[in-house]
Amino acid sequence: MFGILALLSGCGDKFLDQKNLFEKDLENYYRNETDVNEALIGAYSCLAVDGGANHPIMMANLLSDDCFSGGGTNDIEVGGTDKFENPHEDLYLEFYKRNYEGIFILNSLLEHFDQASYDDATARKQARGEAYFLRGYFYFRLAEFFGEVPLDMSSTLEYLPKASTDEIYAQIASDLKMAIDSMSSVTYTNIESGRATKWAAEALMGRVYLFYTGFYGKSELPTNEGTAITQANVVTWLEDCISNSGHMLLTDYASIWPFSSLSDDDHDDGYYYAQNVTWAGDGCAETVFAVQYTNQGDWGNTGRLAYANEYVLYTSPRAYDYPPFGFGWGIGSVNPELRDSFEANDPRKTSTVIDNEDSNEPTYGDNYNWAGWNCRDETGLWNKKYSAVIRDVDGDGTYTGMYYDLYGGTNNMQLWNMQDDIIIRFSDVLLMAAELGSNSQTHLDDVRDRVGLPSVTYSLTALKAERRHEFALEGIRWFDLLRWGDAETAINASNGVPVKTDNVDTTYKITFDSDRVFLPLPESQIRVSQGNLVQNPGWE
Asked: Where is each RagB/SusD domain found (predicted)?
């Protein structure tokens, strides 16, 4: 833990001597609502990772059976994630570090929160609830990807060993329970966009409960207070979110995603799958929680690169523009088995995959360029939900990013992507409630009816298929596979899928290793831990 915070400070061994940690002395900071809000904004900023290969949605997609590595033959980082390998010792340092940076800010805030004065008691409770939500979420991100990690609950820097699984999840559950109890029950539209809400905390509690009880074979979620979170508790919270949050399913699934903005208008010639669709925009009614980005991304300031959504850059089609989709690094080529698994007439397929076998796509047939920049494990299929969207604003053949066109910023393809990372959608709340509660058929039908599919009798098999297709390429599949015990079967089934590497026909090859379902800890953090921190099993 100390190593992470030393990196954050840039002060090396002198870090422990720094009182002026946030450019204000802790003895005179946290005096009022403004100070608390500054600290919260700092914590929210840590949700974004400065380093695309460490983006959590991308890592989760690569670990799953829905994506292959993509990228170039020399992109060892993403290849390592995809193939359960560790090509260098600090592969996941940026992600690991970023979460602990957020935790440290929140620990300091919560330690001093009572000294802040507020005119509005409701605003005070909301801010405290956001702090607890964020700390719980940061620890859940660490626990999902790394398993057992140090559990640091103070702003005093220490070399800490790993906490047990039960200790970590008890802390996560306790933080989320505090968030639920603290935050306002007003509908989401009454809370500033981008901030955590009571409804996001209720939904995240459902996700935490499902992963912990499923993967670890438990029936309840522990808390620090000793009163376990039961399935009935979680269902009550999920149903509360469904009934009272104001969130809802959008009428058209495509309207969730930025490509749906590309209808016939002054900017575009029209994109086939955007016709008769109106983009709902970031922060729409279906988004329960998201990581937001800005137009301030640049290379000149530490951390500012993460102000732009690097994931969109990394996952866009490799090397070539295919208007209305802009080029990127081509990470995470889509497994054709995912495309082929959608039901006939399921519109989610054409909202999820840019398919070079679809005549309505700009990548169709001979339009597609194989082997861009020595692409590896290429399938000709890309993630449409998180691909760069470009526009010919002046009609002269010069394309710029859609978000740059809307919001300005830097006119550069590496910096003009500002799309939200959607972490929890309302449809996820419905399907979690279906999996755990008594309204299973109703909630499953609601999700299917939205995309025009007929009712199917609820079963776990039907639920699994629905979750795969509803949330494909959104970073959810891998953790579903783990908690259901389906990871090994799904990953091994990817062997033998035809791919191209540097335009040479070959097949996808992978060896699943059950000892490596959690990522390796950064070796640099193990070295500075004075013997307290040990490497995860399977990576020693």
From this structure: 286-539
Placement of tokens 């000709």 in the chain: 380
Query: Considering only CA atoms, which of 234, 238, 229 is closest in space to residue 427?
Result: 238
| DSSP 8-class letter at 317 | P
* In the block, residue with structure tokens 């990470």: 331
Predicted confidence at residue 1, as pLDDT, reads 45
Q: Which of 531, 517, 523 is nearest to 59 (CA)?
A: 517
pLDDT surpassing 80 at residue 7: no
Q: Classify the C-alpha dihedral 487-492-493-498 as positive or negative.
A: positive
pLDDT of residue 52: 73
Sequence-ordered list of residues with C-beta below 8 angstroms from that of 413, at least 6 positions apart, any chain: 313, 326, 327, 328, 388, 401
Report how far residue 465's alpha carbon sits from residue 180's, in angstroms, rounded to the nearest whole number.
30
Q: Which residues of 73-91 are buried (b: 16+ CB within 10 A; e: fewer)?
A: eebbbbbbbbbbbbeeeeb
Confidence of residue 158 (pLDDT cuts 50, 70, 90): confident
- Report d(CA 237, CA 147) in Å as an integer: 26
CB atoms within 10 A of CB 455: 11
Establish whether the linkage from the previous residue to 324 is cis, with ω within 30° of 0.
Answer: yes
CA 198 to chain centre: 19
User: Which residues are registered as beta bridge partners of 150?
Assistant: 162
Q: Which amino acid is at 5?
A: L
Model confidence over 225-267: pLDDT tens digits?
999 999 999 999 999 999 999 999 999 999 999 999 886 554 4
213: Cβ contacts below 8 Å, ≥ 6 apart: 219, 220, 221, 231, 483
Distance between CA atoms of residues 105 and 42, nearest Å: 7
Contact 422, 474 (CB under 8 A): yes
Beta strands 421-425; 381-383: pairing state = unpaired
Contact (Cβ atoms closer than 8 angstroms) between residue 29 and residue 112:
yes
Q: Could you tell me the sign of the dihedral formed by the alpha carbons of 332, 334, 338, 342, in that order?
A: positive
* pLDDT per position as a tens digit, 90-148: 999 999 999 999 999 999 999 999 999 999 999 999 999 999 999 999 999 999 999 99
Identify whether the C-beta of residue 310 lies closer than 8 Å to the C-beta of residue 257: no
The string of pLDDT tens digits covering residues 361-400 is 999 999 999 999 999 999 999 999 999 999 888 888 899 9
Look up tokens 């956001």; give the residue: 130
CA distance 59 to 56: 5
